[in-house]
Amino acid sequence: MENKTFPATLDSLDDLRDLVREKALLAHLDKKKTYNLMLALDEIATNIILYGYEQAGKEGVLDVITDLSDRQLTIVVEDDAAPFDPLQRDLPDEDDFSKPLEERPIGGMGIFLTINGVDEFRYEYTHNRNRNIFIMNVPATEA
Amino acid sequence: MSFHILAEAKKIAKITLAGELDSLSAREFQREIEKVAAEGPDELVLFVENLTFISSAGLRVLIFAKQKIGTNLAIYIVQPQENIVDTLEKTGLQHSVNIVDKYM
């Protein structure tokens, strides 16, 4: 298990994506899975930074905990912003996505991409912290 | 019968995007779109061969472009990398833009 702390500002997104790339490489995730995981983290971190902290006029950090087992790569993003469960948000569906651009709802795309990009996404609120949990199954290594 | 001719040149805005387009860089992209929107282009051509990442913030700028410039705006995305095409497809944006290998 490893813990890294990032300031909750948009400048951190770059470093956060680098961290994901590094862990995905260790977990032998393929290019597509790596990209999808990176995108998922970027989307959720963006929401936390913009809405949890900036819009609320708060400063803070994101703690990123990574854990790699034989089977799974787990990345947890913890923050001290107000409780926000991304899974409770109304997500756009096929219908919305087939509408012409000018009629589309503009929100929810990031969370949609997050949930669709990882093998498992969970949210919990514990010890006064939001915990967004991203899990990718690790490909079986040949013996 | 007299001869009439009417020529009208298409207004084309061209933007090259390279690197990673996240919610920080999307702000810069949006400012650029606002600038070209003032010219009222008919076509927006995005050269993205070296764009390696796009988040929903970047996608929202595309939607913004269409909403700001008008529904008749044709958006061309030239030579996107596979992961980017994937994201455009997942979000249904490929129906509203033209993904091309080459802009003629």
TrEMBL record, chain A:
All residue ranges annotated as the Histidine kinase/HSP90-like ATPase domain in the record: 6-132
Annotated Pfam families: HATPase_c_2
Keywords, alphabetical: Kinase, Serine/threonine-protein kinase, Transferase
Single GO MF descriptor: protein serine/threonine kinase activity
InterPro entries from the UniProt entry: Anti-sigma-factor_SerPK, HATPase_C_sf, HATPase_dom
Database matches in CDD domains: HATPase_RsbW-like
Domain of life: Bacteria
PANTHER family: ANTI-SIGMA-F FACTOR RSBW-RELATED, SLR1861 PROTEIN
Protein name per the record: Anti-sigma regulatory factor
Organism the protein comes from: Arsenicibacter rosenii
Automatic annotation (TrEMBL), chain B:
Entries under InterPro entries matching the protein: Anti-sigma_ant, STAS_dom, STAS_dom_sf
Pfam families: STAS
Taxonomy, superkingdom: Bacteria
Record-annotated STAS domain positions: 15-104
A GO term for molecular function: anti-sigma factor antagonist activity
Similarity comment: family membership: Belongs to the anti-sigma-factor antagonist family.
NCBIfam families associated with the record: ant_ant_sig (TIGR00377)
PANTHER family found in the cross-reference section: ANTI-SIGMA FACTOR ANTAGONIST, ANTI-SIGMA FACTOR ANTAGONIST TM_1081-RELATED-RELATED
The protein's name in its UniProt record: Anti-sigma factor antagonist
Organism encoding this protein: Arsenicibacter rosenii
